Amino acid sequence: MNTDPYPSRPRPVYTAPAAAASPIAASEVMATFEELLRALVEKHTKGLDWRQHIWPPGTNTTVLKLALNPSGQLPAWRMVHTLLKQLGAAESSYPAFHAAYERAKLYRPWSDTIRIPQSDELSGSYVIQNTGGTIYLQSERRAPRRTERAVEPVIQDAPGFDLKPDPFTARSITELEELVRDFWRWADSPSSREVAERSSGAFSHATVAKILYDKPNKPRLTMRYLIGLIRGCGGDKDEQQRWATAWRLLDRGVTIPRPAKVHEWPAWGSTQMG
After folding, report:
1. Structure pTM?
2. Is residue 30 part of a domain?
3. 114 phi, psi to nearest 5 deg
4. Same domain, yes or no: 37 and 83
5. What are the pLDDT digits (tens) for 125-158?
6. Quick one: 104 and 115 in the same domain?
7. DSSP character for 212?
8. 173 and 244 fall within a common domain
9. Does residue 11 lie within any of the structural domains?
10. Distance between CA atoms of 64 and 51, rounded to whole angstroms?
11. What secondary structure letter does DSSP report for 125?
12. Residue 176 structural domain
């Protein structure tokens, strides 16, 4: 029986609203994160292996390698987001990539760092990890900061004896460098690591060894290296000032007449290593 009180009026037909234009194809909505990223990479490589492609400077291929490996560690999203920018992905595709990235967390191991504000009782940094479907939350472990070792003043010579090298006797930067080695010997030859740790970060212990042992690949004796060596060997501010002044004079081509000495002491031994 027709219950329509208006038989002559056509029944309204429900029509679903048209889907909004999506920045990514419908077939790719449920694509895996690796598939979406591989499709983006293939646009650059023209189907070739991405390892053989010459990427623009700044492209983080290490993150790309990790992201493309479906069984490897999933990089943090902030690194993936930077990678997408480097690969020239459209901003409209970021939501699809992010959704696929969140789905990848269900089958790939991943880790990230979360920080709780200082106002909270549990303030600090924590590492959240997903390994084999189990999520762990642990405090972030950071290596303790290395504290700079206090510079112990070097013991001076007894009254009437002046064995400490004088930087103003140098006639060139090369002679000044040799006098620095003499100063190091005069200060009881501290190890290269000790000198580097007490130099206020002027250089590494490897650089110290190259200069002190006169290696062929040693760097040029700059002001920074010179003051670092004197400080690392226990030289105080006044001593550092003397050596800095001598370096500035020699760097400008100014030489100082050699002062007359009451007594000429024998030269220090060689530092050449066999």
Report:
1. 0.45
2. yes
3. -115, 145
4. yes
5. 555 566 555 555 555 455 455 555 566 778 888 9
6. no
7. H
8. yes
9. no
10. 10
11. E
12. 167-251
